[in-house]
Amino acid sequence: QVRLVESGGGLVQAGASLRLSCQVSGLIFQHYAMGWFRRAPGKGRVFVSAIHRSGGSTHYADSVLGRFTISRDNDKRTVYLQMDSLKPEDTAVYYCAADRVILTGRLSEADSTYDYWGQGTQVTVSS
Questions:
Q1: How far apart are CA 110 and CA 56, in angstroms?
Q2: From CA 106, how far away is CA 109, in angstroms rounded?
Q3: CB-based contacts of 18, cutoff 8 Å, min separation 6
Q4: What is the pLDDT along the chain (127 residues), one digit of tens a residue?
Q5: How far apart are CA 9 and CA 87, in angstroms?
Q6: Are 49 and 64 a contacting pair, CB within 8 Å?
Q7: pLDDT, position 105
Q8: How many H-runs (helices) and E-runs (strands) does the chain carry?
Q9: Which of 49-85 are b and which e, b meaning 16 or more Cβ less than 10 Å from the residue's Cβ?
Q10: For a 10 Å CB count at each end of the chain, is N or C smaller?
Q11: What is the DSSP letter of 112?
Q12: What is the sign, positive or negative, of the torsion defined by CA atoms of 80, 19, 46, 24?
C-alpha cells in the first residue's frame, strides 16, 4: 500500500519559516519525482515545487521562487519543503505527490501527472 504522509504544518506569523516533510512508503522512491501542491481557501490546487527523482534538479512556481526550497532524502524516503519569508497568501493546505517517472527527468506542474497524493497539511500565515 502506497502512503504519503505530510507533517510540519502550523500557524505562524508573516515572515516566519516552516519545514514540511512528506514520508513515503510502498513504492520505489527513486523511481518517482516528487512535487508539492497547495490549495488555498476557495481556490483550486496549484503547483508549488517539484524535485527530480535523484534530487539533482528542482522547479518552482514563480510565487515561491527564492523563498521555498524543495529537497529529498532518498535513504529516508522523505521529501521536504523549506518555506521561508512566509506571507499570508501562502496560507493553504499543502499536499505532496509522487510522479512515476522511472528513468526520465520529468518535473511536472500538472497535478494530473502525479500518481499518488498525501492527505495534506494545513499552513496558516497570519499578518
A1: 20
A2: 10
A3: 8, 9, 10, 12, 83, 86, 123
A4: 999 999 999 999 999 999 999 999 999 999 999 999 999 999 999 999 999 999 999 999 999 999 999 999 999 999 999 999 999 999 999 999 999 987 778 899 999 999 999 999 999 999 9
A5: 14
A6: yes
A7: 82
A8: 0, 11
A9: bbbbbeeeeebbbeebeeebbbebeeeebbbbbebee
A10: N
A11: G
A12: positive
Which amino acid makes up residue 43?
K
Q: Give the list of residues 6+ apart from residue 10 with CB closer than 8 angstroms, or none.
A: 18, 122, 123, 124
Residue 106: per-residue pLDDT: 87
CA distance 80 to 18: 10
C-alpha angle 18-21-100 in degrees, rounded to nearest 5:
135
The x, y and z cell numbers of residue 52, run together, are 527530480
Instruction: Give the alpha-carbon dihedral of 13, 10, 16, 5, to 10 degrees.
Output: -160
